[in-house]
Design brief:
The protein is mainly α. The chain has helices at residues 2-23, 28-77. The protein contains 2 helices and no strands. Its main location: membrane.
Length: 91
């Protein structure tokens, strides 16, 4: 009886551990699924970073463009903002 008990316990323990490997939390299939989800999320993050960079560049271009338009309007047309005093000095 004692000689068969130890191998039976070890086999049972081996079966439980093997079942955990294939079906339990952290099993090989669930890890593969998590890796796939991680790869998809990284791809979405990269796309979001690219979209953010593009929007940032567009905002920067719009700001610079408006400054150039304002400078041209001030020099060529004498544009004055509210609460500003325009002084023209002739040479």
């Amino acid at each position: 009886m004692g000689r068969r008990l130890v191998p039976a316990i070890l086999i049972t323990l081996l079966v439980v551990l093997h079942a955990q490997l294939w079906y339990g939390r952290g099993s090989l299939p669930s890890i593969a699924l998590l890796r796939s989800d991680l790869a998809e999320q990284k791809q979405r993050n990269d796309q979001a970073v690219q979209a953010n960079d593009q929007l940032e560049a567009e905002v920067r271009d719009l700001k610079e463009g408006l400054e150039m338009v304002e400078e041209h309007a001030r020099m060529a047309l004498g544009m004055v903002k509210t609460n500003e005093i325009y002084v023209q000095i002739s040479r």
